[in-house]
Amino acid sequence: QNGAPAMHNHPIFMALWDTAQKFNLPYQLFDDLLIALLQDLDKHSYTDFTELLDYCRYSANPVGRLILKLHGYDDPEMMLFSDKICTALQLINFWQDISVDSANGRRYVPDDYLRHFRLPADHWRAPQHQEARCAMLQALIARTRKILLEGVPLLRMLRGRLMWELRLTVWGGWQILRKTEQLGDRVIHRRPTLSRADWLVLGLRLPFQPYPGKTWKPAGAALSHRGAPSSYD
Questions:
Q1: pLDDT one-digit tens code per residue, 42-86
Q2: In whole angstroms, what is the distance from residue 128 CA to residue 230 CA?
Q3: Own/partner pairs for 219-227, CB < 8 Å, 24+ apart?
Q4: What helix, strand, coil percent values describe the chain, rounded to 5?
Q5: Cα first-last separation, the chain
Q6: Strand, helix or coil at 74?
Q7: Sequence-distant contacts of 131-136: CB under 8 A, at least 24 apart
Q8: What is the dihedral of CA 25, 31, 36, 38, to 10 degrees?
Q9: 33, exposed or middle or buried, with CB in 10 Å at 0-12, 13-18, 19+?
Q10: What is the rounded distance in angstroms from the CA atom of residue 96 to the CA atom of residue 190?
């Protein structure tokens, strides 16, 4: 932090150092990304949702803050809204990739949700747990959707190309979350994706509906877990 990185002769580090100096980018954001990278090497599950959010703080939130700073935004409130969006997009990716991560020995569904819905950590994907698993996935999707909506005010504060790019990104995450919800229990075997047609529809919708609203009614609402604490709804 007191000068160019130790590997100052490498073109990538030279360009990174030059950009950080030019745009006054905080070195802590790069440190946070490295913390997440190192954590990925030896951590394959999470004890609770709070710990999962802490991981998102290092793996996702710095990316949004760097993008805002690169575009000349430095407002603290905008940074907080950005954190919400980035955290939600990271969580959406976790639920989207359940089948992929399971095959690689990773599980981002936190232990506290498994316990609450009485799912065994080692066999939570077993067929006999389908009903409880569906209820748990609905709870995770609902909580993720809430976090994403909490960041939506940022989309009204941006201007120019970044505004359109971020609006499309948020809509893409919203639709992936919706497809994950529609797949229900099948998401443990199948990864939801957006087709070219999906992206075309989003692009055409963008000028008329620039950001998601609270109009999506989960198709699996009947499987929600009654009596669950609010943090699991």
A1: 999 999 999 999 999 999 999 999 999 999 999 999 999 999 999
A2: 26
A3: 219/181, 219/182, 219/184, 220/134, 220/137, 220/138, 220/181, 220/184, 221/138, 223/131, 223/134, 223/135, 223/138, 223/184, 224/135, 224/138, 224/139, 225/116, 225/117, 225/132, 225/135, 225/136, 225/138, 225/139
A4: 70, 0, 30
A5: 44
A6: coil
A7: 131/223, 132/225, 133/185, 133/188, 134/184, 134/185, 134/220, 134/223, 135/223, 135/224, 135/225, 136/109, 136/225
A8: 150
A9: middle
A10: 9
Q: Please state the pTM of the whole predicted model.
A: 0.86
What is the rounded distance in angstroms from the CA atom of residue 25 to the CA atom of residue 157? 21
The kind and range of the H/E element at 224 are none
* Tokens describing residue 135: 């209820």
